[in-house]
Design brief:
Layout (H helix, E strand, L loop, with lengths): L5 E6 L7 H14 L3 E5 L3 H6 L2 E4 L27 H13 L4 E6 L1 H11 L5 E5 L15 H22 L2 E6 L6 H10 L3 E3 L7 H13 L5 E6 L5 H13 L3 E4 L12 H19 L5 E6 L2 E6 H11 L5 H5 L3 H27 L2
Parallel strand pairs: 1-2, 1-4, 4-5, 5-10, 6-8, 6-9, 7-8
Antiparallel strand pairs: 2-3, 10-11
């Protein structure tokens, strides 16, 4: 087991419900092992500006497990991506005798984490993003709460849809990934879902809505991922024009990042936070904590970023040519698994609508 005196924990990128549960788990696991823990404020900006708070007592993170957002804050920090900013961050670690860092966030957070690790500060990434767009893991902290927020939102809309015999097109978050859209479309009984990952048959959807109206259905809900920019508002007009049904566009926007964290997010965040500290103590670095098949594991951050780029079609020809046979096999299989799981949800929407 590696010797650690002090570690730091930070949250970076977009906030996600459950981040506080992860911070709490990191702090309490560290203290339980006799390690001092610094809360690095405002993400990587706190490292660059030496803005930290030493947590000496477990009670200092009491009651944050049920809070949304992040109690240690987050901030975009362009300076961190520069050599000067990185040098300042490493200097902060050295001056404060920080032996390791737990970084909670998304892919941008992990790119920063691997940069720190390459400069001699062991770093572990914990996936915290409502988008669930880290391909190396089945689940990211915040997804379940965001989905439940959308479900509550749509359930409220449905009353008006039924009362006025209308259609609502709801645009949900997820950045370039359709996980929130797919899950909430199933859970709300949507008549259709549009995500960037799969072709959307607009004519078939219009035909189905018309048929269902003739059969007596009053209210309709269509879920659209923000991964198709501007399409939700466009589709709203198309549906009304082609069906004669009054159709309204709705967007819960950043409300999806809030809300009281669900049990799933509190549990997963707590598990990942504790596991991250123990992996650090076991000498691991430059890895991201993943939950696949219901079990926690680690994946090298560089590999996690590559498989993510492959899934999103952003892997360059040069990067792909440089892959080892083992890397290619893992990444191809992982991308296929993620796509298959998403396609199963997509098909389910249309099977039971």
């Amino acid at each position: 087991m590696a010797k650690f005196r002090r570690i730091g924990v930070l949250t970076s990128g977009g906030d996600a419900p459950g981040m506080n549960a992860a911070v709490r788990a990191v702090v309490r696991t560290g203290l339980a092992h006799g390690i001092e823990v610094y809360a690095i404020m405002e993400g990587y900006k706190g490292l660059v500006e030496n803005n930290m708070r030493l947590i000496k007592n477990p009670s200092e993170v009491s009651n944050i497990i049920g809070q949304s957002g992040t109690a240690i804050y987050t901030e975009r920090c362009p300076e961190f991506a520069t050599e000067e900013g990185m040098a300042a961050a490493i200097k902060t670690c050295r001056e404060n005798q920080i032996d390791g860092i737990i970084a909670i966030g998304g892919d941008g957070t992990f790119r920063g984490a691997t940069d720190i690790a390459s400069r001699g500060i062991p770093t572990i990434g914990v996936p915290g993003t409502i988008d669930n767009d880290i391909a190396a893991t089945d689940y990211t902290i915040g997804l379940d709460t965001a989905c439940n927020t959308v479900v509550t939102f749509v359930d409220s809309l449905r009353a008006t849809c039924e009362s006025h015999a209308r259609c609502n097109v709801v645009e949900v978050m997820g950045r370039h990934a359709g996980h929130i859209a797919l899950r909430t479309a199933v859970a709300t009984g949507a008549v259709a879902v549009a995500v960037a990952e799969f072709d959307f048959d607009e004519d078939e959807v219009i035909k189905n809505i018309i048929e269902k109206r003739k059969a007596g259905k009053r209210g309709f809900v269509v879920i659209v991922s923000e991964g198709i920019p501007g399409y939700a508002e466009k589709l709203t007009k198309i549906i009304e024009q082609k069906t004669g049904i009054v159709t309204r566009f709705c967007c819960p926007a950043h409300v999806q990042r809030g809300g009281i964290p669900t049990l799933e997010d509190r549990l997963t965040a707590s598990e990942m936070g504790e596991y991250a500290v123990k992996q650090l103590l076991d000498g691991k670095s430059d890895v991201v904590i993943c939950k696949n098949g219901g079990k926690l594991c680690t994946v090298d951050i560089s590999r996690a970023l590559k498989v993510d780029r492959m899934l999103k079609g952003k892997l360059t020809a040069e990067e792909e040519a440089a892959l080892t046979p083992e890397e290619r096999e893992y990444m191809t299989a992982r991308c296929a698994e993620v796509r298959a799981n998403m396609k199963a949800l997509y098909d389910l929407v249309y099977e039971i609508r």
